[in-house]
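To fix ideas at the outset, we first show an illustrative case, written as a sequence plus integers encoding its fold:
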Amino acid sequence: MGADDETRKRLERLAARLPEGKRPTRRRKPRVVNFFVRYFDRYYRRHMNALRLAKWGAPPVLADDVPVVLYTNHPAWWDAAVYILLADRHFGARQNYAPIDADMLEKYGFFGRMGAYGVDLESRKGAQDFLAASADILAHDDAAIWVAAQGRFMDVRARPLDLKPGISRLVEIAPHAQYVPVAIEYGFWEQRGGEAFVAYGEAMSGSELAGMEREARRLHLEDRLTRIADRLSEDVITRDPARFDSLLEGKAGVGGIFDFTKRILARLKGQRYDPAHGRRDG
């Protein structure tokens, strides 16, 4: 069930600390979101080889009448593009948002039309604004927030994951929400482009998490994400595409003189030209 009246009023009071023009739900524009979904789909296909979902890590079944917070590790610049693509494929019926660096949002204000909102956890006001903006979103039952919970780029192998306290604080303001760990990893297999690998964990009830002491809650959330990330890495290391479902594929091949030579040799042998280097998914 959605937020009770008391929780909803508390969220609305917290969100009211922001001027109307800075509230994420007022700034997000579906037309802009749809444009950038198409843009990043093409961009990803042009620059990466594939987006792969671990067969065991499919999105969990979630209640439709409560918001969801999807929290992830933060290994690379590509994370933002992966968020957009996953949100469209798996949570397209929801209104998707993501906190980004406040200075970046100030410089590129149009990100706010995509559902981005600013976060500056280095200052007290920044942390308060982050919670107020999140409250504005989580007051809506069809909302989803994608959070890079490490707060900075970190190598996928780094342990502990060192999640920032913000993810634990979100539980306190939105105990009615569902919380889902999502692991992301990147690698290069047999094609020129890189591969992104993702896996979802099971959803956690915010009401159960809210009963924990704040630091214990953060560590619990971190442990759940760590286990998903470790299992994902075990599959990535095998370089076996059969362990994954391909959500999106880019253009295969190495390019340049290498592909040109392969094309000529295939024609001379009367064979069909396949631009893939080595094996493809099979």
Strands lie at 48-54, 68-72, 95-101, 116-119, 143-148, 178-187, 194-200, 204-205, 244-249. The CA atoms of residues 149 and 166 lie 8 Å apart.
